[in-house]
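Key result, reporting period 2: structure in, sequence out.
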């Protein structure tokens, strides 16, 4: 090849690649941005999308969706003849289109995402992915992104049918947008929940039970969202625009934050035990709590009815969430690997405020208990503000009774969580214990605390009804019932509070080794490897932190 021919070939190649001066500058900029965006796409998303679009499940589901939409368009139109010309007919057709679209989005896609991750675990390909640079969070987000793309294809395929139903009158555009948005958010949330169950079935014998549980959750979500959507289509939106916006933002905040919690929990199940699997979950739980408390606080602006409904729902949800989370946090392992210790807070202020996000049953016990106490206190204050609203009903709210019940409930939680720690600690001596066992331990502890003293009292009274006494102080069901009725004796009240205080401060004393300077310095070879992978020049292996204790760097134990 001559020099002129080679020069011409290089010029043509440069034009194709967008590197020639003949290509406009703005087009080269777009090309560079597109290349960077393509390189930054999650490879799991690309792989899952290719497999999903070529799979028989997607082809069959998509074909059935198109056939069902066409069949309902023809059948629904014929059934509405001739009144379709002069009467609003959109609700009838839109109900059928919603059912056609909701089945794949709320049932098929979440179940396919569950089966995909479960298949990765069964086939052993997840172990191959773990040795790559992909993090467990990227794997989970890749599965979720592939499910979102499938939902988008289903939605786009049925969009002309929805537009056709809208032209028949009877449903306004905001209601239609609210309906479609509710369907998309519910579908993504159910997908995240389904993916969360996949790593739980590590043994084939338990996969059937896990699959049945996933199916139960998906069907329950399908029925709940479907009943709300069909009622919205047939009866219209009964709320004002301000109330509609509030409920839409509330549902979006709840779904986004709870989905983040499940994503972090799923990634934690895929993360090796040698790494930190608790901090991200605790952060997302705190964000979820703050978002719901903010929503409940704003509900006071919308009047008494909306405020009471929101405050009651948020209180019940957060109480159940922190009780369950506290049980599982109390069941965590107390040991910390050197890898986790290298990520601990290095400064005094960091240990003071961030130590509660570090793994361990002691920090988890305090973290969950403190958040439960804050939640209940804030909700009581919000309820007291709600009954002072101008449109509030004539409700007599006994403040002292509420505070008494609050103190008793929090004290019982601290006592029960301490019992969970004891049970799990005994089991961990001879067995490998998963944090999910904390839920079973919490149920056992609560059952024994209420059933044992009541059974003993019933036996000593010849199985006849008897009155409450200090012997029933651990019976949380009877005690809380008397506290709500303002009939709890003073001695029993202070006994319960003393039990909770002793359990709480006993765990604070056990935090001594956790808050002491025990952070390990990152080895030089690890820092060099990280710098090489990130392309950043390594300047110093010792962090320059004025708040760091000197002995943390000078006298650290060698990493294992």
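The corresponding designed sequence is given below.
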């Amino acid at each position: 090849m001559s020099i002129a021919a080679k020069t011409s070939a290089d010029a043509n190649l440069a034009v194709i690649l967008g590197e020639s001066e003949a290509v406009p500058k703005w087009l080269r900029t777009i090309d560079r941005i597109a290349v960077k965006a393509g390189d930054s796409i999650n490879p799991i998303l690309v792989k899952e999308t290719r497999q999903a679009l070529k799979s028989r499940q997607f082809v069959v589901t998509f074909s059935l969706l198109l056939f069902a939409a066409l069949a309902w368009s023809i059948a629904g139109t014929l059934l509405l003849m001739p009144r379709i010309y002069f009467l609003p007919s959109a609700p009838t057709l839109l109900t059928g289109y919603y059912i056609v679209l909701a089945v794949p989005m709320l049932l098929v896609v979440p179940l396919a995402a569950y089966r995909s991750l479960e298949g990765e675990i069964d086939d052993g390909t997840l172990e191959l992915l773990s040795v790559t640079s992909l993090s467990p969070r990227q794997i989970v987000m890749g599965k979720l992104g592939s499910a979102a793309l499938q939902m988008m294809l289903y939605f786009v395929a049925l969009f002309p049918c929805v537009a056709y139903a809208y032209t028949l009158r009877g449903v306004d555009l905001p209601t239609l947008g609210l309906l479609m948005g509710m369907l998309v958010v519910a579908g993504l949330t159910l997908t995240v929940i389904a993916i969360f169950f996949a790593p739980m079935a590590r043994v084939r014998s338990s996969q059937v039970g896990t699959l049945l549980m996933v199916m139960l959750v998906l069907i329950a979500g399908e029925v709940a969202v479907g009943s709300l959507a069909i009622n919205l289509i047939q009866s219209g939106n009964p709320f004002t625009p301000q109330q509609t916006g509030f409920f839409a933002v509330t549902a979006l905040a709840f779904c986004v934050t709870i989905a983040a919690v499940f994503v972090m929990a799923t990634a934690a199940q895929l993360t090796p035990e040698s790494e930190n699997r608790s901090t991200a979950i605790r952060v997302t739980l705190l964000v979820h709590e703050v978002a719901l408390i903010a929503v409940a606080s704003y509900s006071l602006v919308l009047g008494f009815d909306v405020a009471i409904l929101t405050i009651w729902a948020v209180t019940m949800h957060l109480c159940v969430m922190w009780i369950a989370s506290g049980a599982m946090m109390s069941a965590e392992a107390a040991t910390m690997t050197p890898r986790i210790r290298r990520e601990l807070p290095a400064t005094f202020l960091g240990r003071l405020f961030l130590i509660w996000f570090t793994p361990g049953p002691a920090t988890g016990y305090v973290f969950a208990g403190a958040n439960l106490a804050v939640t209940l206190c804030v909700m009581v204050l919000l309820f007291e503000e709600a009954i002072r609203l101008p449109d509030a009903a004539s409700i007599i709210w006994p403040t002292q009774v509420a505070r008494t019940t609050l103190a008793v409930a929090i004290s019982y939680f601290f006592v029960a969580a301490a019992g969970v720690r004891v049970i799990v600690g005994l089991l961990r001596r001879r067995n490998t214990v998963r944090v999910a066992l904390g839920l079973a331990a919490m149920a056992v502890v609560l059952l024994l605390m209420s059933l044992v003293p009541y059974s003993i009292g019933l036996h000593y009274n010849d199985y006849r009804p008897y009155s409450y006494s200090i012997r029933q102080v651990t019976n949380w069901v009877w005690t809380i019932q008397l506290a709500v009725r303002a009939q709890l004796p003073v001695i029993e009240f202070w006994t319960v509070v003393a039990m909770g205080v002793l359990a709480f401060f006993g765990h604070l004393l056990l935090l001594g080794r956790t808050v002491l300077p025990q952070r390990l310095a990152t080895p030089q070879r690890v820092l060099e490897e990280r710098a090489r992978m990130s392309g950043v020049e390594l300047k110093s292996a010792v962090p320059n932190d004025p708040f760091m204790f000197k002995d943390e760097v000078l006298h650290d134990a060698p990493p294992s």
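The CA atoms of residues 250 and 295 lie 6 Å apart. DSSP finds 22 helices and no strands in the chain. This case is discussed further under Risks and Mitigation.
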